[in-house]
Amino acid sequence: MAYMIDRYPSEDSPRLGAMTLHPVAESIPRARRWFRKFIAPYDPACSVDDCVLMISELVTNAIVFGRSEDPWLVRVEWFREGDSLRVEVHNPGFPANVRLRRPDANDAHGRGLLLVDSIADSWHSGPSRFGGTVVFFMVDDAWPS
User: Fold this and answer.
1) pTM (2 d.p.)
2) Where are the domains of the chain?
3) What is the CA radius of gyration of the chain?
4) For residues 23 and 66, is the Cβ–Cβ distance under 8 A?
5) Which H or E run contains 142?
6) CB 62 within 8 A of CB 74
7) How far apart are CA 30 and CA 65, in angstroms?
8) What strand order describes the sheet that includes 133-139?
9) Is 109 within 8 Å of 50 (Cβ atoms)?
10) Would you call 104 exposed, middle or buried from its count of C-beta atoms within 10 A (0-12, 13-18, 19+)?
11) Which end of the chain is more exposed for a tag (fewer CB within 10 A), N or C?
């Protein structure tokens, strides 16, 4: 795994940090730990626990649904956009396959995006600038002015 933290984000580069993860189950708790560690210096006012939960769900989905003939990685990046926090998760899957499900009470899977939808102020999916898919969520008022 690789990681990066941008100690002094600017208007030209609002990224606070990034990490690349292998598409294996061990990367899910690693993503939670590293995000928690690297967001701490920025002292966000939002719930880091909520962000960690949403990252966990999106990284899980990226690992489960990412597809490529070549070796690939999951990329997680987080940005400050005004007073909001934006977290992106990239994988080589197909953007059209991202959908919000409404699982039955007995279904064992399918609640990840439902959790993100209920916690985040907004979320979106589409083509990634790295190729494949990006799913991101926004948390408003992460740094109130």
Assistant:
1) 0.88
2) 2-139
3) 15
4) yes
5) none
6) yes
7) 19
8) 2-5, 15-21, 74-81, 84-91, 133-139, 122-127
9) no
10) exposed
11) C
Rounded Cα distance, 92 and 39, in Å:
25
Q: Taking the domain 2-139, which CATH number applies?
A: 3.30.565.10
Residuewise pLDDT in 10s, the chain (145 residues):
555 555 555 566 688 999 999 999 999 999 999 999 999 999 999 999 999 999 999 999 999 888 888 889 999 999 999 999 999 999 998 776 776 667 666 665 666 888 999 999 999 999 999 989 999 999 999 998 7
Amino acid at 92: P
Residue holding tokens 């979320």?
Answer: 123
At how many degrees (to 10) do helices 27-39 and 48-65 cross?
A: 150
Token digits of residue 98: 């991202």
- Residues 52, 35 contacting (CB under 8 angstroms): yes
